[in-house]
Batch of 2 targets.
Target 1
Amino acid sequence: MKRAGQVFRKNLNFIIVLICVLLFAFASSVFAADIGNCLLCHKYPGISRVDENGDLKLFYVNEDIFNNSVHAKVNCEGCHTDIKKVPHDPAKKVDCLIECHIMEPSTEKKFSHKDADFFLANSVHSKKEKDGNPKKFAEDMPTCKDCHDNPLYRPLSFFKKVRYGVSEASLGRCRVCHKKDEFIYRFYNHVTTRLHKSRNPLNIAEVCARCHNDPEIVARHNLSTKAVYSYGETFHGKAARFLDERIPDCLDCHVRQGESVHQMMSHEDPLSSTYKDNRSNICTNMDCHPSASPKFATYSVHAEFNKTQSPVQYYFTFFFIVLTGGTLLPLMGIIFLDCIRRLFPHAVIKRRK
Amino acid sequence: MKSMLMKVYILGFAALSIFFMIIIWKVTFAHVIEESHDRQEVLEALQADKEKDEAPVKTTFQKIILDSEQTVKHYLGYKVLEEKRIEGHFHHIGIDIGPDKRSYCVNCHGDMPHDQIKDLRAFLNMHAFFVSCQTCHVKLEGKEKTGEFRWYDRRTGVIIPSPVAFEEPGTYKSKIIPFERVNGQLIRIDSDERISFASEFRQSKDTLSEAQSSKAKKIIHKIVSKQPHLCEDCHNSKDPVLPLDKLGYPKERIDSILSTEVVGLIKNYTQFYMPRMLHPGDKSGQEREQNRKKNLKKNKKPLTITKIN
Amino acid sequence: MEKTPAIKIKNGTRYFYRFTVNQRIQHVILAWSVVTLVLTGMPLKFPDTSWAPYLYSLFGGIHAAPVIHKVFGAILLALFVYHIVYLVYVIYKYQVLPLKQKERLTTGKVLKLIANQPLVPNLKDAKDIRDLMKYLLYMTRKRPDGAKYTWKEKFDYWAPFWGMVIIGLSGLVMWNKELATMIFPGELINFSLIAHSDEALLAALFLFIWHWYNAHFSEAVFPMGTAFITGYLPEALMVEEHYEDYVEIMTKAGLADEILPPHGMHAVASEEGGQA
């Protein structure tokens, strides 16, 4: 009887865990901000067309993924403001700078991305020159969606140090005071996503690569390097390639500590983090190489195997290439000849005297 | 025997040493050549910039069609989300249904064939993800009409049990296909015979004369009815074309499909957006035909893409 | 009886003593650490290849593999230092000291002694390479008569020797980059990275193709040469690769009448005899 009770209790535990798991599996769909019932149609992945320019337009919204994004709390109408009725006319492009219905709690003002735009307009990526005239090839300059898609939550778990994700243990602590699971879940994600890089270093490098590895853009704007390519040749870049989360990516060096990534400056600007006199501050950061001397920062991160860009390194590499090829190719030839010689061990070309 | 094997081994190693030479060439001297080649290209691009203020954008098939298919992996820590990347797309997709390898229609018309009726095209394409072309575009009459529809797997083409109960709406990896009656027997409308006819036509298209070609097209499109089934034909509770319960739809899904919400949406469309669009035969039909011709003319212009980056 | 006789007979085959236990242990440590270093280093050199992530995760990925790489790098460097000390000690004790006892030591005599070390490249090597090419291109039936160490073995010795200096120094710079840039400019790290990775590629390809072919995969030794474990080389290989040395050892051992003809010369001898 006692044993049966134990078994039952064990099963009960299991059932409770199961219910919790199921609740969490469904939790995401509980939070849906779909007041206008837009998903009645937009939950179908096939809702799409090819427009007049031959571009694919996809109107599908994956509800589960959306609810795990930083915009989960914003309704469709919050951004797609022109849509008032169903069925609707072709929707206008979303203006990322509108004030949405969410209140920013510290100022109690309506939330907006206007600051990001202001920073961007004053950064190296601005469409205008410092004197206010439009830049040459201004259309190459990035706008919001060139770098951002809907940012996804990347929660941290401090209780289980080994993996990322929502920590059940800390949710338990939240529940002591906060009653709504939806709030707890979102708040946990909101905070912990911002406690580390919101995107993996490799993902960041891939975003920059869309322009900075494009040979046409690099040539058009007289950039000295295919930046992500040369970053990929450094240990930092290679570690990022192997999904290291703590390795510096583009933003770690090109943005001043504590400032918005939208405030990126040209390396010729004395205010920039990458200005030659400021560079050593990047490397000697407490989290990176605190014991390094200022000379350390004269390491050329973006040196390429390119005769015009870094001639000394080009010829240095060239020496090793010639050494490697010049040594190994003849030796491979000897192996080849040796193999063939062993096929006909006694053959010899007779020379007439 | 042993010495024979040894000879094979030696020959193999000789081949291997050639392979090593290629590898060594690739990791050494090939880089030097590549580097000078790259520099040359940059110089040429700069030259082109100087000559012409805006560099001519290359519009090759490779660049527009093939290279534009990118996937992106989001490393979220607790999972990796891999999906297709569509330039300028904000929302995440997260699923990939895969191409329909069975349908012989999409070979020419594409996966997203509907593009004429501006207000409806996205809806129609949405349905085309899980409803085969023949379901709406072939109206079986008389003896041929069976009222029989089944699901087939997009990749293998074989008939499978209904996926509706197990997957999210519209994300099935399968499509509905009608069955017709031939000589008293039930067969699927996309018979192997029709598929091979269409594929043979596609393969030999370049060698056919104009008369042959149009004859083939006529035969392929013979079963297509003049007017397709319309939204209301299915989205009505009295006499829907598709037997939803037989196709495995649970009751609440049927209720939703036939609900006032969906049916009302369609009514709204017919009343406010295209009052005459769903009533074939009247004036709007002719208008539409004219529009179609206009569009065709427009589309004859080569595809130009103004900006790529 | 001597523990390691110059000629040992096992199953009717003569085996010739070539490597001492000390040398063999050095070689095993060298081989083991080089293989580990290559396996933990190459994924970083070619991170975009399909095999790189799998190979790297086998060594614990980006967090553990660099540590393993440094540990084995340190082992290899220690071995290198030991080898230099061993070399100097052996030469001093067995060659310089006896010379000193016999006659007065001069710098010229010591230099001459060093130049005559069996592993130092000399004119005979150039001649052997020329003769080998003649043999490989079917211009003669006769392989060059190798001395105790052939040009191939000297290559096998000096290539990693030079490699270890280059790779070791550049590796140390990158390991202690903060310290190194106290004195040198940061660009030294750029050059170290280039030298380290390019020289390592050369060394890896050299060892895993050239050295392995000669020591293990060539028809003469296939499937595996065992001299690096036992220290003894079978007679057939002695004849093929080190004929000069072979004749010398056999003569010394008083077996001059049992010396085999040079490699591939049985057929030649009979053929020429027939013609005559």
Target 2
Amino acid sequence: MVKSLFLIMMAASLACYGANIELPDDELAKETVLPVFKKPGMVRMRNVVTNKKFEMGLQYGWLMSEPIFDTSRLGVSGYYHTDENTAWGGLFYAHSTGLSEYAKQLSGPGFDLDFNRAPKPLYSVYLDYNKKLFYGKMSISKNKSINTHLQGLLGIGFSQYENNKTYPGLSAGVGYKFYFNSSLSLRTDLRLLIHQAPTPFKEGALREGSADPGYGVFKDRIHYTNTLDVGFNYLF
Amino acid sequence: MKKLFILLLLISPLTFSQGNRKASNKKVKPTVSKKAPVAKKVAPAADNALRRQLSQALQLSQSGQYQAAAIQLFSLARRPELRNDKAQIKYILGLMLTELNLNQIAAFQFVDVIRGQNSRYTKLAIEKLATVADELGDDTLINYAMSRVDVNDVPESNRDMVQFRIGEIKMRNKRYQEAVQAFSSIGIGSRYYGQALFQKGLAYLEMNRTQEAIQVFQTMASARRRAGVTDTNRVAALLGIARAQYQRKDWDAAVAAYQEVPRDHFLWHEALNEQTWAMLRGARFRSVLSQFHSIHAPFYEDDYNPESLILRSIVYLYICKYDEMEKVLSLFEKTYGPVRSQVSIYLKNYANPLSYYSEIEKWQSLQKLPMEQRSALKIPFMVAEKISNLGSVRRSLNYLKRIDIERKTIESNPSLKSTGLGRYALKVLNTRSQNTKITIGEVAKVQMTNMRTELKDYYEQVSFARYEMISAQKETVKKRIQGTDLPEARVDDNRSRDFYVQNGYQYYPFNGEYWLDEIGNYQFLGKSSCE
């Protein structure tokens, strides 16, 4: 058989290799079903391999539903991928200590509320568990496609406030990573954060010009905050 | 069961009458030896006792106590006093064993009856042997039974099976016209109908009567129209049509027929491979390269397919894609270099066919494990897979499984295992098992020897291809120096990505990884780099 290969090739004309070949319709995909193989698996020779790798990240966090304090925080993260589907890691956030735009508006004439008297968050530390749900890819141009990861997120940790107290919290959400290459990715995480924290509302305590009552008057309760983190991660 | 009961009812009066007749014969014509007066007195008594045992065994069989009947019949079959009834006893013993799902042991009883050439039981035994041989799937037994069977003696219910097996034997003996006749006699209602049509089509192809083959395969596909898109008989028929078109050298029709094979059927992989050849013969090189991209995807890393890599490299040579050609040749050497050396070393170190069988056996347990867990295998995984998927090896492996089931049936039944029948059965099964393993091992050894020779030839081709590549590269360098080289170009340079998307297609540039849903959908878009 092998000896006939050259003969076949010699006999065949190369004229068909024209300058501008249209793709024949009969060669384009007609079926949406998948081929059957003995060994399961959707992808082979994947570009992004996470198994037994570390990952470091820098991210900006937006506390989407925070009404009083500054909604920004900056974070660093580190993860270890125990396999292709699971990663464990930690997150550290340094909160911006100012007030939100809404709170600033309330300090003006007519309201005279000074929310700076309420204890603000300083930093947060969370242990994070990531479960990769889907590995995929996106075609963005004729010559470029990027890989993606959709993952579930679960975190547990605490936040330190200005009143020298730490408050526990839980977070859960989904994340999406867009890989520029096999190491560098843009990561976006959307979470619901359920955490204990001092309530920055106390009748009479925030009034400008009145005596500062101290942090002790603000009672603790459970807060629900939506967060969106965007950052860059590096896998190594 | 019902049939067996009726059969036994018919046989048992014969036994009694025969026994009585013999007894009465002895009364009329006593064969008395004067030198052995004791024997003269004892023999009839012993004979009567044996006959009582025989009728007792028949009663047991009639009452459905097959195991007890089989044990008793087995010991009676060995008694020289009952040698005139041996055929009958063995035949009934065979029936009992069939009821106990001990087909292999039953087959031996029927073979004994056939060899004894008893006028009454030989035909019955042949018919039963044909049935159990069919159940067992053992070629030796099937050949033996079919060489003796007269189709007209076989009951209507089994005639299709016998015709099918006869057809298969005729095919193996290259008597294709006779095979066609045998397969043609199988009616549409038979469970062998689909297989018979397929074999008939193959027989026509062997005779180079492609048009008739296509008609047969079309009939087969139509017959399975309602069975679903992925019905194996339907898909086999589509593949048959494609092969017939290829044999007719109608390359475009062959390509079109191969594309009808549904992707979610295991035969699609064969269609993909064979389609490549049809495209190549039809000089559709761009399409060939598209298909090669699928065929050489890691999803097929366990497939033994060295030829396709060489073919791909040659296509690259013809379109002056030397870098690609070098990659493919390197892939060939990386993949098949270790295969070649491992096969050679194994052939050198092992002569016993059982060693070869043990590798095939290991492969069966390792086949679904990841690559790194297959180190127990001494021969390359892809070689073991290729051998294991050969029709003859597959049949033998299935036969071994059936023997194993019979052995377990006996071993799990202490009341049978401890008897003479149990010991005999285990001995027979062990011998059959051992012989089958040796047969598989011998096939494996022959295959590996052929592979070694084949790989040697392919390596020579690789050297030749490399030489051609280097010569051509020299020319390219010269042209580059002269400034006349061609820029990298694609066949769809004047098409934007949107063109495909607007026409309902997804467009993904290949970025090194292979996705299951992409297999079979790759399109090579490069142009010839030759001037």
